[in-house]
Amino acid sequence: MSYLEVEKFVEALYKRLNIQNPEELSISTIAEALKIEIIYSETISMRIDNFIVLPHSSDQNIWQNFGHELGHYFFHEGDQRFMHSLFIDLQENQANHFAYHFCIPTFMLHQLQIENVYDIVQHFPVEFPFALHRLEMYRNKHITLYEKPAFYLAG
Predict the structure, then answer these.
(1) Distance (Å, rounded) from C-alpha 139 to C-alpha 113?
(2) pLDDT tens, 27-39?
(3) Which among 141, 138, 70, 147 is positioned nearest to 104, based on CA atoms?
(4) Do the bridges between strand 37-41 and strand 51-55 make them parallel or antiparallel, or are there none, so unpaired?
(5) Which residues in the chain belong to E strands, given as ranges?
(6) What is the pLDDT of residues 71-113, one digit of tens each?
(7) Which of 125, 133, 136, 150 has a beta carbon 3.0–4.6 Å from 63's, enabling a disulfide?
(8) Global confidence as pTM
(9) CA 112, CA 126: separation in Å to the nearest integer?
């Protein structure tokens, strides 16, 4: 399967951290390996240098926020308080996209042969809507790469 750059990055990161299976996914293990300090807050989530602030919430929501903030950690610089709103939107969309791939890595989906959203929720610490969106991303990519739409088959 052809991998997007973000999928390659995530797989290389997990291999470097010696993480190959969903049951090995751990905020504390990953943060320690990357030398990131985790701070818990009542409501906010953000990254400042090597600190990631995560809200007290469900384990699934915390994992998803961790993935989002790691997207900022790896790919973004600067203080959003001083950025144009369109640039903030771009960074947030990029961090969200990264979070889907970080929290539910493609190479792990391949290993598990996921068939439905319930399989994802069973194996990965994510909420149902997050899992559903990631499954749609995964299936859409598979259809785009391997299946010809019906209108190409006509005549």
Answers:
(1) 12
(2) 999 999 999 999 9
(3) 138
(4) parallel
(5) 37-41, 46-48, 51-55
(6) 999 998 887 778 789 988 999 999 999 999 999 999 999 999 8
(7) 125
(8) 0.88
(9) 16
